[in-house]
Fold this sequence. Notes:
The protein is an alpha/beta fold. Helices cover 48% and strands 12% of the residues. A hairpin with a 4-residue loop joins β14 (542-548) and β15 (553-560). The strands form five sheets. A seven-stranded mixed beta sheet has the order 5-9-2-10-11-3-12, covered by helices on one side.
Amino acid sequence: SRFIFLWCLVAQRKGMVINVDNKKKNKLLRVMLPGIAVSFALCFMLLVYAPFELYLTNRSSFWYTFSIMAQYTLAIFAAGMLLCVIAFFIAAKLGDRVMTAAVAAAVFVMLGAYIQGTFLVSGLPGMDGTEIDWSAYPAERIKSVIAWVLSAAVTAVLLWKLGREKFRKIAGYAGAALGLMLVLSLGMLMFTTRTEKRETLAATDVNLMSFSAGENLIVVHLDAMDAGVFNEVLVQHPEYRDTFADFTYFDNAMSGYGHTKCSVPLILTGQWFIPDESGGGSSANADAFDEYLNTELESSPLFTALEEKSYRIGIYDSEDFFLYKDIYDGRIDNMRDDIAVPSDAGRMVKSVFRMAMIKYAPWDLKAAGYRLQSEMQRFRASKNGGDYEFYSSSNSEFYDRLKEEDCITADGADSFKYIVLDGAHVPFMYDKDMNTVENATYEQQIEASMTIAGLYLKRLKEAGVYDNSAIVFLSDHGSTLSDEDKREHTLLMIKGRGEEHEFAVNSAPISFEDMSAAFVKLMDGSLSTDAFDWREGDARERRFFSYNWLTFTDFVEYIQYGQAGEHETLRPTGRVYG
């Protein structure tokens, strides 16, 4: 009986200890819960919602797939939550005041980031590579400062009015509600957006410099080259007339779109991309564009003629040109069944943080986020590890290839090559000799492009490729120097196979919807002026669209009634699509 009594006594005391420990644990958990709820909302908003929102609404701007994005984002979120839980555990152990201060700090950041990323996004500068003068946006900076000061004030007033315990409780409910709202919003965005695209091919540098001793059609696309400004540069550099001897410069040519994404397919197919007039939105437009690109290219007279003549087809475009694997695999010489993967996990992690900073960081910290596009290209590697590199449109990389005297060979099959280069696009970073300089001008960027073009022609001549090739230099759209929307005046210079004459200027009213048919005529041996049905002096109304390249919406239709570059005769029709 004594043994039973002692055993019961020990068991009772152990039970009391266990009960006390459980009470302590439960109390600690209750104290930590508000901080955990706020941490979830904050981490989810910055490390999951913000990156995915940017990615899903701008998919063509990112080389990594949805799967890669998800792996890194969710891992970063988990790490962030773990750190927050550890921090709040320590704060809870240090006492009531420290815990309240930690919750208040988290609430302050949560409120400030939410206001910044939700209500202060309309004045953000574009991410097209232009060097941004952040001091030129004083109003946005002031609004950002007010938002964060207001967040601090609201947090302080609530803490003062509610007291520590009630403040933590209300903060927990608010964090849980915001977190749930963000989860539902992201779920809806994913539901209405194709997260994984149909399998596509990647553009590589395979056979970029390999041509035929028989026939070639070479198209060099110099991005954002405005023909109006080029005319001014041409006056200052009469030597360009010698560089482009044998070429006809069509100084009245105009693009169909104000941005590259839609311009390239129009050039190659002659068919227009027009979004649903009912306004499907960014995601619907992007999906429709992919279908348009792949369908119209395959059925285009150009693609048909190239395959009938057994031309080796190369399309060297590092952005926006996603061809379906099941249609084009094996038909485009430089396209590979490959995807890009991060070569550096640390840089990929940084890119996720930069994606969050673009919208949700205070104004004075956004510049770090805007380095995202330039940084992304530095850790892009091939998953298959092939003996090639993904194609880059960088002016400097292409120019470096041309510095090697024997870079071009004439030992391949008859070839068609469409080569996209940065040309005169922002950022302006070169002088006329292709030296990297600070504060370069648009005119210098044009001069640099002419230096590249001149050396390219020289290498083609040295390799015995020049005379047997039809060569086209064109741009996809003009510049934004005078008007953001009216960028229709484009560069177009053409030399047919065996064509010989002094540099010539022709003012026929050319539209880039004519280019696909012109390419076919050049393949058949036509000279430059015979590639088009239009002649100098012809009257013609030509179509043009401007659109919001950030959202891929708001396609505004114009008609040019006069000469390309005459803004007063480029008039809106009143029709807006998408």
